[in-house]
## 1
Amino acid sequence: MNLVVLGATGSIGSQTLEIARRRGHRVLAVSAWHGGDRLWRVVDEFRAEAYAFKEGDDRPGVGRRIDGDDALRELALWPGADAVVVAVNGFDGLTPMLAALAAGRRVAAATKESIIAGGDLLRGAVARGLLLPVDSEHAAAFQLLQRRRAEEVRRLIITTSGGALRDWPLERLPLAQPQDALRHPNWNMGQLVTINSATLMNKGIEVLEAHVLFGLPLDAIDVWIHPTQMVHALLETRDGALYASLARPDMMLPIEQALMHPDLPVDALRPLEPEDLRELTFRRPDPLRYPSLRLCREVGTIGGTTPAVLCAANEVAVSAFLAGTLPFTEIVPVVESVLDAHAPAANPDLGALHASDRWARATAENVLRRRAGR
Ligand SMILES: NC(=O)c1ccc[n+]([C@@H]2O[C@H](COP(=O)([O-])OP(=O)(O)OC[C@H]3O[C@@H](n4cnc5c(N)ncnc54)[C@H](OP(=O)(O)O)[C@@H]3O)[C@@H](O)[C@H]2O)c1
């Protein structure tokens, strides 16, 4: 199989490359944010034909650098690719996803911010290509939903560990430092998604992601805390049955499932044994601890440009938290301030989404400056 891997130096990107090594896939083109040794090692190892990066200097050697604003789109259309893995952060995944889908390609999509920002556009593009989720809960839900008719499905439950600060007393949360919030109990992921797991913004975004990918109403998508994250998704059908999808928390499975669908990969990971299932506990998330869940549902109800604004503002707020200039408990209020100032537009095209993304980043910076001046 011939792959394009966007975000090849990141957590999902590196695991995709591990699968490529294991299965003998070719990697034709790759991207990263930074040019540098991590990217050059990938380009050299896989003898990639093309690569792109945003910051840093090029170097002579294997492959051709694709430059400019359209670079990810060009890589997504690279000749000969069977699948495009989109694993960059944020909004920059949307253009390559749309381009690859329009060209009839398979897209293994990890970049959930791009999926929710471009929901309506993606729904239109999916008619030509194949959009497959690379998120453990959505990959599990996707399997559970196979051969189910929409009217048979009553509820989808996606699970969360509750994040690194799940068991902290509420009054201590404002004191949480980046190293506390980055200590995820089950997954080793990039910094943004790990902080989003601690605020549960990640899960709120995933509710919207399931809404886009599976066309389920927002109130039919539920979130429960399940600390061991062996159960990734539960599907309630109209007969009253509840179907579960269980696997070890390991992204190799969803990545390989997305690359192989409708076939199943062989031995993508070590299966669970019944004795591994001793701690199947679930509880509802506390809305006081996790205000992001309410905010994401409100955003989903409004739709239009608001999901793009949510993600962009959140990225800026998380960066400020990681830089030590914003308390953990202020991340969601900063995002909410930006959303309050936003005049949503319905049915946005790509240009309107880009403009909303830029506006939200600038507005979030203003909110942070005002806050710092208080
Ligand atoms: N990690 C997981 O287990 C997991 C699970 C489900 C979904 N996801 C989603 O997958 C996406 C990637 O997550 P991750 O954990 O792999 O992130 P990560 O470790 O931070 O890696 C992100 C990758 O994309 C590159 N990149 C970042 N921003 C970019 C941009 N704007 N344009 C182009 N390249 C960019 C980075 O390059 P540099 O290395 O040069 O910075 C890196 O290669 C996120 O949307 C996340 O929510 C992740």
## 2
Amino acid sequence: MKICWANTDNFDEAEIVIVGIPDESKSHALRKGTSEAPHKIREIASIRDTYKRGDDVSLGLPLEGITKKVYDFGNIERSQISETIEKIISKSKIPISIGGDHSLTIELIKSVSKKYGKLSLVYFDAHPDFVSSIHGYYGSVISDVLPFIDTKTSILVGIRTPEKEEIDNIKKYDLQVITPFDIIRNGIQKTEEIILDKIGKNTYISLDMDAIDSAFAPGVSVPVPLGLRNIEVVLLLKSIAKRGICGLDIMEVCPNYDIKDRTSHLASRIISEVISSAK
Ligand SMILES: [Mn+2]
């Protein structure tokens, strides 16, 4: 099944490419099942984001519409990430990857940085994923991508449950953090300015769905209360996408723990909104 936002069967003409990576082999979460997300998000998109009248199918679009050509590559294995992403970005297409556990982002960023060099990373997550005492899992993503990002133009958004060693690492690398409290205090417009002032020209966005409050996104593998509101996250994603992005990933949706597929539906809407704003 293809995601409903796909509007071309021709890879060559695509400007945006959706890739599913149903792999959770490097998660340590007690709640399993993020590997179901690529299928579930496509399925829920086709049910909730389309309106069927007889044989006609109409999409429930973002207000700007979708003018970009979007291709759904289907699902790939973790071991196919570098060849697939290199194929997509060699033609300057934008990959939108759906995980899977957050450790997939390490492979994605490595592949994207082969073309663009050190990236500005905007990392939405409840957790800093900045453990450095062990590597190569969903809690060490930031440690593992340090050689491929420019920390001076990168930013963590939504952080609210750091471990002690993660706080130390954030200080050590002087990485900017925006917490949910900061957004409430500063307002969304100021937050948008802070992020847009921070990032450089080659920006990659990684969205762990647990950045969003569990009220809006209950179906994640490690939920944390006091998170971002869904609409704040979408507004920020759209502003960054308008500036131009090298790639986006959406990780950690865990359909087994979802409530009425709310989190998968939100992921589908997020994809449509980013596509409609992408430069
Ligand atoms: Mn994460």
